[in-house]
Amino acid sequence: MSALADRPADPVVGRRAVHESAALHVTGAAMYTDDLAAQTAGVLTAWPVQSTEAHARVRVDVSPAYEVAGVVRVLTAADVPGLNDAGVKHDEPLFPDEAMYTGHALVWVLGETAEAARLGAEAVRVSYERLPSIITVVEAIAAESYQGSARTVARGDASAAMAGSAHVFEGVCEVGGQEHFSIETQASLAILDSEGQYFVQCSTQHPSETQEIVAHVLDVPSNRVTVQCLRMGGGFGGKEMQPHGLAAVAALGAKLTGRPVRLRLNRTQDITMTGKRHPFHLTWKAGFSDDGLIQALEATLTADGGWSLDLSEPVLGRALCHIDNAYWIPNVHVHGRIAKTNKTSQTAFRGFGGPQGMFLIEDVLGRAAPVLGIDPAELRRKNFYRPGQRTPYGQLVKDAERLPTIWAQLLDESDFERRRGEVAGFNAANADAKRGIAVTPVKFGISFNFSAFNQAGALVHVYKDGSVLINHGGTEMGQGLHTKMLQVAATALGLRLEQVRLAPTRTDKVPNTSATAASSSADLNGGAVKNACEQIRDRMATVAGRLLGADERDVRFEGGFVTALGRFDERLSFAEVAEAAYLQRVQLWAAGFYRTEGLHWNPDQMQGSPFKYFAYGAAVTEVEVDGFTGAPRVRRVDIVHDVGDSLSPMLDVGQIEGGYVQGVGWLTLEELRWDESDGPHRGRLLTQSASTYKLPSFSEMPEEFHVRLFENAREDGAVYGSKAVGEPPLMLAFSAREAIRAAVGAFGPVGRSVVLGSPATPETVFWAIEAARAAATVDGAARQKPDHTAGLVPAAATEG
Amino acid sequence: MDDIAVTVNGRRQPLLAVAAHTSALDWLREAGLSGGKEGCAEGECGACAMLLATPDERGGTAWTAVNACLVPVAALNGQEIVTAEGLGSPDALHPVQETLAEAGGSQCGYCTPGFVCSMAGEYYRSDRAPAAAGTPLPEHGPNGFDLHALSGNLCRCTGYRPIRDAAYSLGSPPADDELAARRTRPAPVAVPTDLRTGGARFIRPATLVEALGVLGDAPEALLVAGSTDVGVEVNLRGLRPQLVIAIDQLDELRTLAVDDDVVEIGAALTLSEVERRLGGRVPLIAQLVPQFASRLIRNRATFGGNLGTGSPIGDTPPALLALGARLVLASSTGEREVELADYFTGYRQTLRRPDEIIRAVRVPLPLAGISAFHKIAKRRFDDISSVALGFALDVDDGVVISARIGLGGVAATPLRALATEAALVGRPWNLETVRDASKVLAAEGTPISDHRASSEYRSLMLGMGLVKLYRTAPAESREVPA
C-alpha cells in the first residue's frame, strides 16, 4: 500500500466526469490560440517563405516584399539577437542559409493582414544552389547518412541461439510515418508588454521549453518570457517540440514591431513544415523452437529522422525498449540508428517509437504463425512474459500476470472462439470477400526514459470563500488532463467537483515543467496537485480540529464538508474552515511537487529501470476485406485495457477508443508520399492536404466497438492507484493489421506466411491478396503488381 | 454597401469592407464568432460547418449544414445562417450540444462546433423519422439520424463512437424550438448582388438572361455555383478572380422535370437536392450521390459545377456517361444540347464556350436494367476516387443488348469505355463474356501512378469492376421503369 495510491471514501476520482470544457466546446465558446489572435487589436500576421528545394544553399532577397501594400517587416537571420536556433540540440537554424527540406521556412513576412503577408511572402526572391539530397531511408542507409547516437539493446547470445533454433524467419520491411493532423494547426500569438515582458500564447505541449527557446532566440532570460497555453485543438506529440521556433518567430516579430504578432500555419504549411511520426526501416531475423517459443531476435531498426535530430534519439530509445512488446525473448541483439534525410524533422507522436518497435515483433509473429502451424492467438499467448522475468533492457516486468488475465477475459467477452468459427464459415462460403479476426496484446512502459523529466509542479490556492483554484504544469490537448486534475484536487480536499476551478497552464505559475507527453501527465501533475492539496488540507485539519474539538488526525474532508470521526452531527463547510484558517493566519495556498521514485536509466548501455510500471491491454478486431478492391473494413472491436483504477472512466474510454482508431489510421489508411524521383519536385510531400492525406473518418469507425476497463487494477506507484492511458491504446490497433493479414491469408493456401505492407491501404492489401491467390494456383507462381491483364478474375473465384 | 447583409444567429449583420473572395468563415471569425475553425480550408474537415437556411421542397425552409470556409460571404447576401454560438450558450445548451457534451463527444473540442452544426442540420431534417419496427437503415440510428450527415466532419481525438452515440440518441425538436418553427416559413429568396471591392466584383444576377448578358460582355468571368471547388482554389492556391458570377440561385437552373423520354436536372440544384427530389428514380444517381464527397459538400455542390470544371476525377461524369446524359448549354443566342460523351475535349477542357452556362443535365429514358457506380478510393466517406466506373447495361433473354460504361481517373478526361462496350454487346451475359470484356476494360484509358494509386492498380480495378458488377447484379434484372 502506498499513500500515493490510496483513495479516501467516496472519492471524486473514479467517477464519470464530462470534459471540463465540454460546454464551451459544443457552443464554440472555447478559445484557442488563434481565436485570441482574431480578437487582438493591431495584430500582425506572420507568413513563411518556404523552400521549394529539398536541399540547397539559399540566398534570399526580401526587398520586393516591402513593395507589397501592408507588409510591415520581413524577419531574417540578421534580426535574431540571440541564438538562431529553434531547438535544444542546436541543429535547427530558425532562419537557415541552407534549405534542408522542401517546405523549410527561410524567412517570415509580417503583414497587416494575412493577405498582405501572403503576398509579401510570394514577392520574396529566393535563389537556390541545389545540393545533393537524400529522400528515402533506403537512400540514407546506402549513403550512410546518419545522425545522433546509434544504440543497441542486447541480452544473451542471440547469434548462438539463432543457430540453435528449429525455425528461423527473416524479413525486411518499412513502416510508414504519420502526420499528427491535429485539427488545430500550430498557432502562436506573441505580445511585448509595457514592462518588457513577452507574453506568448501558444498551442504547445511543452510551455517551459517554448519559453526557453523564445528566450534564447531573443537573448533574454526566461523570467522575461511567459508562455500560456489555454488549450490545444489536439496535440498527439506534434506540439511537443514543433511550436518552439514558431513561437520564437512571433515573439521576435513582436520585439521588432512592438505589435502583437500571430502565427498560425495553414494546413499545407503545417504538413509540409512540421515533423511527423518516424518511418522506420526494419530488418530482422527471429528464431523459434518447435513449440513456438521465441528463442532469439536480431534486428536493425533505422529511424528516418528527417533533416534534424529533434526527438529522434529518445524515440529510437523507446522503440528499442518496446521491441519485446508483451513477449519474453531470451536472446536479443537489436541495433538502432537514425537516418538523416532531407525531409521534415520527425518528432514525437503518440507512442513515441513504441509503436514502431512493437510493429516489428507483431509482424514477426504474424508471419511466423502459419508456417509454425500454430494459431496466431496461441503463439502470442504462449510467449507472454511470466512473473519474475525481465525485459531485454533489464527491467522486471511488474504485474506480468495481468497479461494472461486480460487476455482470457477478452477472449471470453468477445466470444472469440465462436466468432472465429463464424469467420471460417463466412470465408468458406464467399470467394469475393474474406474476413479475419485477430487478437494482440500491448505492454507499454510508463515514464519518460529520460529520468529528469519525471517531475512536476502545481500551485493550489484556497480562497477565503472556500473556492479553490488549481494550476499545474500539464497542458490540455483534449485528453482530459485538466478534468482529471480537478477530480484529483476535489478528492484530496474532500470537495465537490464544481468547487474546484482550474486556471490555464502558464510558465509564471509553475516553472520548469516537463512536456505533457509520454502518457505521464496525469501521473506527474496529479502527484503534484495532490501534494499541494494535502499540504493545505493538513493545515486546515489543524484549524478544523480546534473548531470541532477533535484531534487533527481525526478530521475528515468529504463532499465539501469537514467533520471529525465519530461526531458526524457537527459539520463545518469547507468555506467556514477556510475563513477560520485565514483569520488564524494559516497559509491557504501551496506549491506541490512530485517526482517519480525509483527510476534509473543508462542510455549508453540501454539498461536500467526507466519505467514506473507497464500499461497492459489487448484487443480483438474482426475485419472484412473486399477481394475486388482490397478495401478492408473493421466490423467489430473488443478491448480490455488496464488503466489502473481509473481516475475518470469516460475520459479513459475516450482515450482508448481514440487511440485505437488513430492507430488503425496509421496502419491502414494514412500515407505520407514523397516525391522520390529525380525530377524538379524531388523531396516534395505529395500528400500535403486533407484531400490527399486521409485520416479516419466516420466510415472507418468500427461498426461495433466494445471497450472495457480492466477492474481492480490498482497501481501502487501512481496517483490514486491509476495508470497512464494516452499512448498505449494506439498499439491495440495491431489487432486490426493482424486481422487483415488473416483475411488476406484466407484468399490463399493454408500454412502460408502473409507479407503485408504498411500502411495496409486498399491497394497494398490488394497486392497481398493477389500474391495469396497466386500461391493458391497450381503453379504457385507469386506475382507482384501483375501486368494490366493478369489476375483480373480472382483465381479462387473463377468457378463462380 | 450596408444594404448587403447576412442574418447571423437571428441578427442582421452588414457586410462592411469585405473582399469579394472573403469566405464566410473568415468573415464570421473577424466578427467575433470564432466557434467555427479553419482545419483544412478545403471542405474536408468540417470544422467550419454552419447552418444555412435553404428552400425545401414544400415551400418551407431546411437548415442545411455547409462548409463556411468555401462559401464567399458575398454569396450569402440576404441569407440566414446559424453557427454553434447561435444554437446555444454554455449556460443554455441546445439539445444537440447537451447530448454531445454529455456523451463525451468532445475531447480537444476544436472540431466540435462543426460537428454540432452538422448534427443540428440532421436534427432539424423534417423528414427524419424513427426507424419503423426498430430496424434502422444501414448507417442510420434508431431515431432516423443518417450518419452520412457527419461524413464531412473529421475528429482526430474520439474515434467517433461517442459522437455516433450522441447522434443516435437525439430526440425531436421541442414544440417551442425557434429553429424548428423557422422551417415552416419560406427560405430567404435570392438577392441580386453587385459587390465591388479592391478591383474585384461579385455579381448575383436576378435571372438567367441577365447572367448570360453579363457573361456575354465578360466571358473571362468565373461562374460559381456551390463554390466547393473554387473555394479551395481561393483558399489554398490564392485564386483571386476579378469577376465572379453566382449562378447557384437562378430559378432557370434549379428545375427538375421527368417526362416519358427524359429526366432533366437543373445544373444548379445541389446534389443533396437532386438526391431528395429524385428519390430512387434513377438508381445510378441514387448510388452515386452518397459516394460523392461528403454531405457538407453535397449540400452546396452541383452537377453543373462538377461538369463545369472538366475535371477527370469528378464523380458525376462516369455515372452520367453511363446514363448517356446530354447537357443543355445556354447562351444569349439560345440553347444547344451536347452529348456528355462529346463534351470533354482535353484535360479540364470542354465544349462549353466562355459565353455559355450549363443549364441542365438530361438523362434519357428508359434507363438500363443493370446499373452500378463503383468508386475506388482509400476511404469510403469523403475521398477522391483513384478510379470510378459507371455501368449501365441492358440484358435481354440472357444477351447483352446495350452497354454504356463511363470511366473516371484513367485518362485526362472522363471517358466512355467504347471498346469494352463493343466487347459486351451481342454476347451472352455470363462469366466468360465478363472475363473477356474485363481484359478489354483493363486496357481502357491511360492511367497514371500518383499518390492515390499506381497505374497497375487502377487498370486492375477497371477489370475487377465488371466482375464485381456481374457478381453483385441480380442476374434476372431487366429494365427498370423510370
From TrEMBL, chain A:
Species of origin: Agromyces cerinus subsp. cerinus
Top-level taxon in the UniProt lineage: Bacteria
Name of the protein in question: Xanthine dehydrogenase, molybdenum binding subunit apoprotein
Keywords recorded for this protein, A-Z: 2Fe-2S, Iron, Iron-sulfur, Metal-binding, Oxidoreductase
SMART domains: Ald_Xan_dh_C
Source taxonomy: Bacteria, Bacillati, Actinomycetota, Actinomycetes, Micrococcales
Family label: Belongs to the xanthine dehydrogenase family.
Chain ranges of the Aldehyde oxidase/xanthine dehydrogenase a/b hammerhead domain: 27-132
Classification via SUPFAM superfamilies: CO dehydrogenase molybdoprotein N-domain-like, Molybdenum cofactor-binding domain
PANTHER family (alphabetical): XANTHINE DEHYDROGENASE
Classification via Gene3D superfamilies: Aldehyde oxidase/xanthine dehydrogenase, a/b hammerhead, Aldehyde oxidase/xanthine dehydrogenase, molybdopterin binding domain
Any one Pfam family match given in the protein's UniProt record, by short name: MoCoBD_1
GO MF term (any one): molybdenum ion binding
Obligatory cofactor(s): Mo-molybdopterin cytosine dinucleotide; Mo-molybdopterin; [2Fe-2S] cluster; FAD
UniProtKB/TrEMBL annotation, chain B:
MF terms (GO), sorted A to Z: 2 iron, 2 sulfur cluster binding; FAD binding; metal ion binding; oxidoreductase activity
Residues of the FAD-binding PCMH-type domain: 195-368
Coiled coil: none
Keywords carried by this UniProt record: FAD, Flavoprotein, Iron, Metal-binding, Oxidoreductase
Sequence ranges assigned to domain 2Fe-2S ferredoxin-type in this UniProt record: 2-87
Gene3D superfamilies the UniProt entry points to: 3.10.20.30, 3.30.465.10, [2Fe-2S]-binding domain, CO dehydrogenase flavoprotein, C-terminal domain, Uridine Diphospho-n-acetylenolpyruvylglucosamine Reductase, domain 2
CDD domains: fer2 (cd00207)
InterPro entries: 2Fe-2S-bd, 2Fe-2S-bd_dom_sf, 2Fe-2S_ferredoxin-like_sf, 2Fe-2S_ferredoxin-type, 2Fe2S_fd_BS, Beta-grasp_dom_sf, CO_DH_flav_C, CO_DH_flav_C_dom_sf
One Pfam family of this chain: Fer2
Designated name of the protein: Xanthine dehydrogenase small subunit
Source species taxonomy: Bacteria, Bacillati, Actinomycetota, Actinomycetes, Micrococcales
